[in-house]
Amino acid sequence: MPRKPSDYDTRRWIQWCPGCGNYAILMAFRQTLAELDIPPEEIVVVTGIGCYGRMTNYVLANGFHVIHGRPIPVATGIKLANPELLVIAFSGDGDAYAIGISHLPHAARRNIGIKLFVHNNAIYGLTRGQVSPTSPEGMKTRTTPKGSIEPPLNPIALALASGATFVARAFAGDIQHMKTLMKEAIKHRGFALIDILQPCVTYNYIYTYQYLRKRVYKLEEEGHDPSNLEEAWKKAWEWGDRIPIGIFYRREDVPALEERIKATRTPPVKHDITRIDVSKLLKEHTI
Ligand SMILES: Cc1ncc(C[n+]2csc(CCOP(=O)(O)OP(=O)(O)O)c2C)c(N)n1
Ligand code: SF4
Questions:
Q1: Which ligand lies nearest the alpha carbon of 201?
Q2: Which residue's alpha carbon is nearest to atom 8 within ligand 2?
Q3: pLDDT tens digits for 215-242?
Q4: Whole-structure pTM value
Q5: CB of 116 within 8 A of CB of 194?
Q6: Which CATH architecture is the domain 5-285 placed in?
């Protein structure tokens, strides 16, 4: 029997604000898994701390809710231990682009086969409305009451400059399109970033559904060639009256880190553990 999105539903009460863009991301993700027919036991969802972090509570799969900023290294460890698992790291703009930013360029250059889906609402939601690295200049927040004086970070350009082999942007106001991107990212050979524009209806009064819907356009509808790095770089800097969504850049000819490691070493999941005696260790650590 074909899988349904409800097969990935933990049936828990969802605690996001009504209208939050996170609902659409959750729906798109469950639909993606069902359409790709991936068994829940073969999926690991890793999240850090933030409103988005509850994805582990709402997706029926293996889940690991880690500390703020660290979904990438934990997801990397899981993927290296068992390359056969589908490992998805969900992150926030605070998580991925502030406290955890050191991990993104390295995951990209290594081409580790994890997928990073960033709920980019350009604000810290969980801690109630502080400025984030992607908040627009001039935006008033709890920590910038007179308006932010900093130019925002460009995650698409950062990923491209770091050597990422799949870089895309989605809009939480378009579930069908987001789903297409999630499917492509999952099928991609190595590291994939999807930066998802996610309206936070409670704390971000600038990037609303209305604001974003009026500006987003699909790269594929304007003949963008995702194999062209130079074009991708130009598109990465387009932000204003027009905001591109879709796949900026993709190449499939680079082996993933786990493939390179596999050539010389057996992943830990394949090690024979039947003859390992842990009784000495247990004795040592038992009170
Ligand atoms: C080490 C550490 N520093 C700070 C915090 C406080 N903290 C929790 S969530 C968060 C930011 C959340 O923003 P984001 O990652 O964008 O997720 P959102 O809540 O917007 O979904 C911060 C600063 C923490 N939990 N741990
Ligand atoms: S605070 Fe913002 S990001 Fe968090 S649940 Fe509410 S609307 Fe969503």
A1: 2
A2: 20
A3: 999 999 999 999 999 999 999 999 999 9
A4: 0.96
A5: yes
A6: 3-Layer(aba) Sandwich (3.40)
